[in-house]
TrEMBL record:
Belongs to the YajQ family. It comes from the Bacteria. GO terms for molecular function: nucleotide binding. This is Nucleotide-binding protein CLV92_10345. The keyword Transmembrane does not apply. Nucleotide-binding protein. One of its GO terms (cellular component) is cytosol.
Length: 163
């Protein structure tokens, strides 16, 4: 009888890569001609990313530069939760936070997708902010990974501890 194979479904963000993307975006904003004189900047503010500029269009452009840098660094935009631009005195601000961990609601949604559309004999188990998926067949696990990659979920998923 073959032993069970498994993997974990998690939603984590590499903070170092986000920090690198943020530094690249800040450097580009300081050097680009269309940002001259707009007081545009992007920086960490505690656990959130703060973007500011003197107009709504410019602060949206700052967000676009940051998103471009995140994509180039391999970070899914589903992990970035940016609010709408809001005026703050003479400037506009956008605050963005990073979404990490599987919520109970999202874990239930993933479990339902696997039960309904996945191969039979695949078991799921939620522990904290991650979900373990196990099966006797590695091919079934590959099918589940492909199924979850194709699913329209509002979180950046990673598949770790595949054994």
């Amino acid at each position: 009888m073959p032993s069970e194979s498994s993997f974990d479904v998690v939603s984590k963000v590499d903070r170092q890569e986000v920090d690198n993307a943020l530094n690249q975006a800040a450097k580009e904003i300081s050097q680009r001609y269309d940002f001259k004189g707009t007081d545009a900047e992007v920086r960490w503010s505690g656990e959130t990313i703060l973007m500011r500029a003197n107009s709504e269009d410019r602060v949206n452009a700052v967000l676009d530069v940051l998103q471009t840098k995140l994509i180039k660094r391999g970070i899914s935009l589903k992990a970035l939760d940016a609010c709408e631009p809001r005026p703050s005195g003479k400037e506009y601000r956008i605050e963005a936070s990073l979404k990490e961990g599987l919520s109970q609601e999202l874990a239930k949604k993933i479990g339902k997708i696997i039960r309904d559309e996945g191969p039979k004999g695949v078991k799921t188990q939620v522990t904290g902010e991650e979900m373990r998926v196990s099966s006797k067949s590695r091919d079934d696990l590959q099918d589940v990974i492909a199924l979850l990659k194709g699913a329209d979920l509002d979180a950046a998923l990673q598949f770790v501890n595949y054994r």
